[in-house]
Amino acid sequence: MPEFKQFLLADTAEGLTDAEILSVRVKPGDEVTVNQVVCEVETAKAAVELPIPWAGRVTEVLVEPGQTVEVGAPILTVDVDPHGGAVNGSAPAAEEEMKPLVGYGSKTVTTKRRARREAPEVAPVAKGGYVPLAKPPVRKLAKELGVDLRALASSVDGVITREDVQRAAAPTQAAPVQAAPVQAGARERRVPIKGVRKATAQAMVSSAFTAPHVTEFLTVDVTPMMELREKLKKHPSFAGVKLTPLAFAAKAVCLAAKRTPDVNASWDEAAGEIVYKDYVHLGIAAATPRGLVVPKIRDADAMSLAELATALEQLTTTAREGKTPPADMLGGTITITNVGVFGVDTGTPIINPGEAAILAFGAIKDMPWVVDGQLAVRKVLQLALSFDHRLVDGQQGSQFLADVGAILADPAMAITY
Asked: Which of 19, 63, 76, 201 has its CB 3.0 to 4.6 Å from that of 7, i.e. a possible disulfide?
């Protein structure tokens, strides 16, 4: 006897409310196995592959690529007893508790054995109520017409149809609201605000209007750092390591944060407390095809220069491929944004929510510089530090920035910190 279960979009990261379907890797009739990846979604933080927690045969695909679905909405319907017996040799219970995989939310959904034509199984959603079965185009139409599917009764086998939606919308709206067609030759295009771009915009607006920002600037002669870099690249301990100037900046930030712990703290408004961190989870702003993301290097302060360089290479490669796990985006304590990679001198970066400071690392350029009273051509960069003035006052921010600059100007200073 068939036993149907719905695979739901669970919360893959803290605070997730919806996600865009990037791809669906199965179709009706396909057999699936436990932990097989059945679809890929883009959350506000990254692209995530979703494995299914049970085996069976796919009977319905309820979403399509490009569709945005809410947490708790059904993605697939699977017959977990397609051969009338046990799946993987175990007899299915009349009622069982389905728990999502670790990292894929904490909600528990109870499913019951039923015949194919019984009352449709429905999916709990984050805002309460239930979403009945409906094909993706029907869900899209309902969204356009402002119809709540949870309030409808189906007319065909427990599945909401286009006619059901249009009938519900008739009293208030005679026809679907269609977007104005783009005229031939138009020099504009419109792209929905969603995914990483939407999350970044919301976070930056929140930060800009919550934390009182102060930005300070420092120009540094980093010729000694660049000379040391060339020397270390030939050292056996750096064999196979991509040693970038950013690695030196990461090390300098970790060392300087120990002398000025206020830049590595957070403001807890609800508790009325300042939280000082005895560790550095270093955020690195990375540009990706999906937008700006800020993955973290955990316990960066405990790493050597070579370890930081390796971690940076792995982090940026993973981020550009869109494969950063959502958990790696959380819990940062201070951030570096490398605007120099674009040839930019500096900027006024916005602090990541929950952090106290962010350092902009500019382009390293040959510039005229006075050395021992003589004009010379040196390797010079500009640093910009934005900090939350609730946590960091002018003296502390200036001290931290000066310490970072001193280490980059003369790496030997690191042994004094």
From this structure: 76
